[in-house]
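User: Modeling request: complex.
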Amino acid sequence: MDKFIVSTSPHVKAKRNTTRSIMFEVLIALLPLVAVATVFYGYHVIINVAVCCLSCFGFELLYEKLLKRKEFSFKKASVHNLSCFVTAVILALNLPTTMKIWGLNVVSGSTVIISFDIIIACILGSLFAIVIVKQLFGGIGKNFINPALGARVFLFLCFGAAFASVASMFDATTSATWLSVKNEVTGGMLLSMLLGTTGSAAVGETCVIALAVSYVYLSVRKIIDWKLPLVIVASGFVFAILFDGVVNGLEGVSLINNALAHVLSGGLIFGAVFMATDYATSPNTNAGRIIFGIGIGLITMLIRCFASYPEGMSFAILIMNIVTPLIDKYVYPKPFGSQKKAKEDK
Amino acid sequence: MKYTFKKGVHPDSAKGASSAKSIERMPAPEKVSISLAQHIGKPAVPAVQVGDTVKAGQLIACADGFVSANIYSSVSGTVVSISEMRATPVGKCEHIVIANDGAYETVTLPALDNPTKEEIIERVKLAGIVGMGGAGFPTHVKLMPKDKVDTLIINAAECEPYITCDHRIMLEYTEQFVEGARLLMKALALDKVYIGVETNKPDAIDALKAYVLDKNITDVVVVPLKPKYPQGAEKQLIYAVTKRKVPVGGLPSAVGCVVDNVHTALSTYQAVVEGKPLYERIMTVTGDGIKEPKNLLVSSGTLYDNVLQYCGGFNSENVAKLISGGPMMGISVMNGECATTKTTSCLLVLTPSGANLTDPTECINCSKCASVCPMNLMPMFIDSALANADIDTTVKYGVMSCIECGCCAFICPASRPLVQTMKLAKKKIKERK
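Assistant: Request completed. Predicted assembly structure:
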């Protein structure tokens, strides 16, 4: 009479702690950003989020259905872990509201009512993120770069000109972002960067206050390592001072203002909170994460200060994503009680 | 101030069901089956034959070699068979089955008055005393360390969820326990013994401190420990109390420490002062699937089924797991036809919701396992390396240091069976050599 389940210990598990619950928490953290973006940029944000969600969900399901064939069952499909929606929302927040690529937009006067161009871009981006970056490499946890970021860079390289800037409710004339002009920074500009009432290349990057709320939420719920975004922001700040001060010869208040503007504008904080902290593509040790974070800050500032692209955060994260396996190979802790440490204690 | 170690997890302690229940003596069943292999080391050799009449407290199997312990009968009656039976943790082994005559005729060893160091060790060996926390390592071996030892720690952390037997011992057998700890201290020729208790048992800490103060004892130090799992793991406990790190692959004696369990101290007292060898123990019966959770004094060799019956049986049709030991490191058994031994500290009955059964999914590389591993290992890499049969990588990430505490699998959001991975990897490494 064998009536009980026999398994290896432990026989209890932490409650309310599953892949699905983690992804759900990330979605909650993304809510304020979606809300702020909708208020700032209008209903196009909602359309983009919805299109990305539907296509990411669809592509992941379809991919599994095609590959698993008879073994496929919807009940056990990987879409239930919600990670495709996280990718979708992050991707949507990484795009402008509308785009002008093929001219498939319904226009009334100077306002775009529905932009089919960006809807197609959203679908293409989702396809790239889910199928090429994530599923082809083995699905969740095996992606070699952050899927949403991969898709953003894919779209950026394909349709770069359409990524110019987004029209904000505060700024109907589509002003250029600070990173592409780099004019003298004033206190008022810093304030509007903090609030998000300035030009921005993607709808999610705008409001630093909303990003801070998300960061605090994710850290308190222990979804992300709270140290990593801080390391990235701090190293971005330090390298901005170093490059603009030593190489470009800025001094005093304008140097500090410039470095602050670097941190507050573009995708640095959004990337630091939502994309660099992606589990699969960031190192698994504290020391490794510090190297990873400093690397992102360094590469971002190198691109911003010396290269021809105004924004370098996406490339910086992608490069460090690819370096991650190497970091994990060499940076790992010694087991408790390893001889060298024991000697130090004496 | 609370002493602790680094990392670890905070499982729901779930001790409330039985922590307030006084220890109750469970009458011996009609038949006891006493295992001959109750711990690591060699099984004992039977000293009785089928048909022999024995008394409670009579030697029925002798230690075979140094790392082995004597076994005593827990009832008076007749030996009906010596046969193979399933047992934890060794799989299958010989059991001496004794039919209880109900007379409870008892024999004892001569009590020792003010014994010397050698007399205590000799008595501990004779009485078959082992580490009663789980592994069951013969205590006399620990009392004769090869290295110089300067610290004795009594492990009263009881960090495993659900279990309350050590807690009850400290409350109800305060004197015997503290004096037993002091006997162990004397056997090691030390002048101090540390008792590490988690602060979620404030009444136990108070009882120990009150006793020590009342009797004017100066050589017992009660160390409050932070409630955290695995606070009672040997290496973590030593670090918490002394800040010393047991070297990889080394024994506690390498850093001058000996760690003994609460019940071991109590049994030492009973063996030395009362002349009673180890043939019964205090255990907890609990879990969300048992009708009446209890702390019981159980005769060695009582079947799990008898114990469960005594506690009113299951309160639900739907029992998922029966576990010998705690939920984090205990061994799940397929049915109740298994006998209690010197090391059975708990019988845990879990329903599917209590056991939180979920199927494993893909690793998402969240590194939570690494962030809780008290031994600083990288469980996710060991898991993926083993899946690729890459044994060298599992060694690189420290699998041989794994203490199988279960923190990684407890915290894993993908419910991966990481402890199973570690055990399998260790087995493969041993096979390779």
